[in-house]
Amino acid sequence: MKCLRIYATPDGESHFGEAEIPMTEKVTVAPGAKPFQVSKRYLTSSMEFTQIPAGMRPVNWHTVPARNLSVRLTGAVEYETSDGEVRHVSAGEFVLLEDTHGRGHLSRHSPEEQVVLWIRLPDGLDLPPA
Asked: What does R_g of the chain's alpha carbons equal in angstroms?
């Protein structure tokens, strides 16, 4: 499974990329249930919900305080990285935000209220030690 990623290079410029989340088939979920794909478990240090009010203005260049997986539950956002690339993220989509230094990114919010789940991932989506 692929995950949109915003990261900063050593020179402080932000870019979009992709993180690959390895998945394996889980066969024995429940009697008679179809198999589905499951990732490994990732370490988290905290999580929080954010309610962004309707009519939120664009948020100028900013970084994130720590690596976070942002899961958009309602509403939408448009991110722009310092290289000029723009991506739209809708409800139900998630982004790994790792631009903890440098110029950061811009956020342009949809006009309606939004609910976002922030999951702090100290090690990003790197696989935990076996």
From this structure: 16
